[in-house]
Amino acid sequence: MAVHRIRRAMATIEAGTVAAQIVGVLSRHGGMSGAQIARLTGLARSTVSIAVTQLKQSRVVVEVERMMLEGAGRPGTLLALNPQAGTCIGVHLGDTEIQFVVADMSHNFIAEKRFAVGIDYEPEQALRIVKTVFEEFYKANGLSQQSLLGAGISVSGPVGRNGVLQRGGILPKWAGLNIRTLFSSVFVAPILVDNESNCAALAELKWGAARGIPEFVMFKMDVGVGGAIVNNGAVITGVSGGAGEFGHVSINPEGELCRCGNRGCLELYASFVKPIEQLSRVHRKPITIESAIALAETGDAGAIRMIADVAEYGGRGLAMVGTIINPPLFIIGGRLAMSGELLLSPMRKAFERHSLIKPQDGAPTSIVVGKFTENDSLLGAVALVLDNQQALIST
Amino acid sequence: MAVHRIRRAMATIEAGTVAAQIVGVLSRHGGMSGAQIARLTGLARSTVSIAVTQLKQSRVVVEVERMMLEGAGRPGTLLALNPQAGTCIGVHLGDTEIQFVVADMSHNFIAEKRFAVGIDYEPEQALRIVKTVFEEFYKANGLSQQSLLGAGISVSGPVGRNGVLQRGGILPKWAGLNIRTLFSSVFVAPILVDNESNCAALAELKWGAARGIPEFVMFKMDVGVGGAIVNNGAVITGVSGGAGEFGHVSINPEGELCRCGNRGCLELYASFVKPIEQLSRVHRKPITIESAIALAETGDAGAIRMIADVAEYGGRGLAMVGTIINPPLFIIGGRLAMSGELLLSPMRKAFERHSLIKPQDGAPTSIVVGKFTENDSLLGAVALVLDNQQALIST
DNA sequence: CAGAATTTGTTCTATTGTGAACAAATTGAA
DNA sequence: TTCAATTTGTTCACAATAGAACAAATTCTG
After folding, report:
1. pLDDT digits (tens, 9 = 90+) for B260-313
2. In what order do the strands lie in the sheet with A234-235?
3. What residues in A contact B243, CB-CB < 8 Å?
4. Residue whose CA is minimally distant from C9 C1'
């Protein structure tokens, strides 16, 4: 009941007003004090104070019990959007897994589910799975489907600005499909779609290893190689959503044929596809990325060597990107990142060796593993919604 | 006399006010109507109108005679900063040439001079040349040195955010020097320093081939290879000013040693250094970039082939950058760009061949020659000042 | 060629947002 | 411990800004 009133109050906030700015900032950042809102928006503290009291009366904004302790001075009261103001959903369409998560507007994650699917799965299957889990979860937890403010969808593939999957490298049956329209049959709320690496970068930016660092590069190493470039706090998408395709830079024009149609792409050398084959052959049983890392951690020389070999090419890739972008930070993602220092250590060496800017001159480039390697894209899908909440109000 | 009054009026404009916003927009864009200012700043037309009448009274802003003709509707009156409000200077420190230009605040270029200098010239020599031409020109044209609002300096080398030349590839004797402090003995005004490619990109963005296109990549091919990435209307600088060093991406880890200390850098293949040597040997006389292009234009097969060979590697470089950034536009700069289609045509082919995103899928990437190839960096040095005029007021 | 449709620049009034001032709540220094 | 130094959140008078309304100057459309 009260929920409905809050949602109506939110809907009546006009775009561009102070209230809308405050709601937007809180949606993007989760929770903060009034003074922080004032600094972030550039508004006067007095203006924020007045608007916040109104937003508190309409129950759109709530005071969170917890106080903030930073430096000297009176601590501010932590403000956040009312968790009851609405829910948002994140979906990740991976190569062999579909992930699903529900969160509220004050950045609380309520539930996360995973579904294994066969490789090269059908769109219909994904839709069915997502529809079922959505309906069942909302019913079981007494949530109204109308409370959904938006759904973010992360896809393992290049997504154009319109929501169309450009090429079907990992999801062949999805090529050319408009994912937004596809899922509009499931969610009666705005749907935002983006590439998995872009989503992963968003998650690391908002809650992870890049919090407060508006310039960095996400570098994903898994069965594919890809990434995202964050500049000025925003992901660079490119004209057709094709930015950050690090894996498909050709490093050898006479090299093997890649699934993208070019020769000698970085992905052929820096992904873990071939190492898995080699390890499976040597160990005479199927080896996965996870088991290969486990082997390496127990000291298996072959697995360690495979990781180091891939790290060499990964480091070359970082050097290439670093020479072009020169970011202060690289975040390594993808399942390979779970091998930690086994990967990072040789990768840092390769990076230094091949990069123009050496650690001695100027600011050093740090290379770290992401905070959410296993579900970064999924969390980023939620971030997609939270970041665009302002735009969604007007719709 | 009146000049002094205008300058005082400008200095009293407080940062953040509507007047400051208007002056900033006019400084950045040259001239525009009040309605355009309103749209760009997000202010109401009425607010702009009131502020502009005041600025006109204080003679900071003037009405330019010329009217604007665009579409339907009443044409607006063109507003611009008073040319007498101040001057700004651009300096380009090239490999064998120092360029100098004077402009006023309404984007009129008053004079441009060039001085040939020996390769690997001394900082003292450059300072002497710039000081002399500055003093003499201002004296000869009855300009007060105090009218100088700012000086922009473009340098052939990587410039850190503090104004220090990081590495002395082209200007060995300047390595590690703070160029801003160096020139503070010449100019008693704010000094802004940046890399030549970044400056070139700024010039093309403001007045040239990228006008109105906030996302593009500048790709310079000369005796070195470099560039700049423009995202969201601003140049990406990188942590230590090292972004856009396309020439020093290694495309062959076993290749020849490069002057940067790495092996097989793109610059070794895509710059015109080796072609010049080969052409000189074949023609048994010293050939320059200019004369090589002239030869190619008269049909000399060797010169045409040299350009095509370099274009192949240039195209590979574009493909590499395109796969990472995916910009809608590449602007080719550097003296090699003066060969026009002789370079562009094979380069476009190589780009398509090596790039992930093919013209059929999605938005095509256009590759064009810049508008100011001979003096883009110099003009960009002035753009540096005009773009930061707002920040300079408060200083 | 005449009227419709745009777009601009200006004036006016209502209102939104600001800056100054202050009490409150903390940290750090004497 | 006590007092200075910060920083926050709130109130209030006042100034800055926006929105509506209008005349003016153009292009577009029959």
Report:
1. 899 999 999 999 999 999 999 999 999 999 999 999 999 999 999 999 999 999
2. A234-235, A225-231, A216-221, A329-333, A366-369
3. 324-326
4. B49
